[in-house]
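#struct-help
A.M.: can someone run this one for me? Single chain, 538 residues.
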Amino acid sequence: MSNQMSNHIMSENTQRSTGRDAQRNNIAAAKAVAQTIRTTLGPKGMDKMIVDSTDEVIITNDGVTILREMQIEHPAAKMVVEIAKTQEDTVGDGTTTAVIIAGELLKKAEDLLDQNIHPTIVARGYRIAEQEAQNILNQIAEDISIKDEIKLKQLAITAMTGKGAESNKEKLAEIIVKAIKFVSETKPILNNQTNQLTSQTKVNKDNIKVEKVVGYTSDKSELIEGIVIDKEKVHPSMPNKIENAKVALLDSPLEIKNTEIDAKIQITDPQQLNAFLAQEEQSLKEMVTKIKSTNANVLLCQKGIDDVAQHFLAKEDIMAFRRVKRSDLEKISQATGAKIVSSWKELEEKDLGYAGQVKTEKINDENITFIEKCKNPKAITLLVKGGTEHVAEEIKRAVIDAIGDLSSALSNGKIVAGAAAVEMELAKKLRYFANSLNGREQLAVLAFAETMEIIPRTLAENAGLDPIDVITQLRTSHNQGEKWIGINVFSGKNINAWEEGIIEPLKIKTQALSSATEVAEMILRIDDVILGNEKINS
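D.P.: on it. Structure tokens below:
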């Protein structure tokens, strides 16, 4: 009856699936997304090669990059991609883990639905399990502070393991930790429960600019105490290098303004034309004279700089750059202490920033400018180097992941062991918790506990190990109370992940669980999918 009715009220080209069919299709789509990136997890994870419509090639094992480039169309699959994007924006790492957990939650839910357990009961059970899992995670997590340099370095190394940066991860970890220390701010806060002063560290990871340079090995990567921009000076006569630079930042153009409305200027003889051009030139000279009067010798402008103004700036030995991105201007402001000024007329000496050196270099046909040796910079640049474009890009992604891990760990102040130790501990404790429940939700909580084991299972499969043997070994150790026992994917043996320095931020785990559970719940609650006319035709 309902199908007949839908035929009357909806367009004839509309496609509709309801009940179990709708759920099966949605679950299958979500599982397919998780299956696609499962092989990229862990130190022995494989890479994906994606070729887009413009024949551009991307080689990566970064979950969110793969999913973003795949251009997925299925609406339920898109919801799973959203998990990866949220994980990336919130933490910066752990995207693959989050998607794999979501896929497995739905796979387990399908088994429960086949046993005639109602979707809302499964969804409620998952919600109960996720809340308990969050409590367990907060209980077992360990503290970390900005002073724990060894732990911070281990965090960075763990984040880069299995990615393009692995060959020189020690060197890269050192400069990442150094970078984090530059941009972090530690403030004392009062703990209301204990009435004691504790410190909280905030890291603005946006103040670490990651730039890549092609043609060098990754061990040549370096930390620049300042900002690097891919810009060249606007005039060849300008100096290539300025020591003790006084930096001016403008977000308005150094050009003659066009009138807001169409205007006609009638000139009847050549002298009038010359006078008009001379007036324009005079105005531009006035601009440059004003900038020079502030003692600025480096100018970065967000908008354009007129050709005549470029000539005058070169005569005054001022190094100038035009069309600098707003985000770069803000970073340069943080690094040098310069203020971004809206009009050249308002520029004063107190608005200038300081850099020990500003220089432009041509590196492999690319013009790059270094604004460096700043005093106490609050924004810096990590210059990542790689042998080819693809290698450098993948190292850059790995470094950004590591920066995300460190900033999450310090902002949250909590870390846990990796190597699937956390997931095994969660699985064990959630099983105990499920036994304390009555009703059918207990089955959903048990399914959630089993889902946690997908991480060690996937790590084992990607390393060519027998997943059953690996999980059995891990269960035995965890049942004996060894909470940080994980899997060494190279030897296939159990290891104490904490002692081995395999460490991850707590935030990766808590965010992955909450996002994956919410999306799994949402997909389970859908029992009717209506595809409109336009969607089918496309």
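A.M.: thanks! The radius of gyration is 29 Å.
D.P.: also worth noting: Residues 534-538 have pLDDT under 50 and may be disordered.
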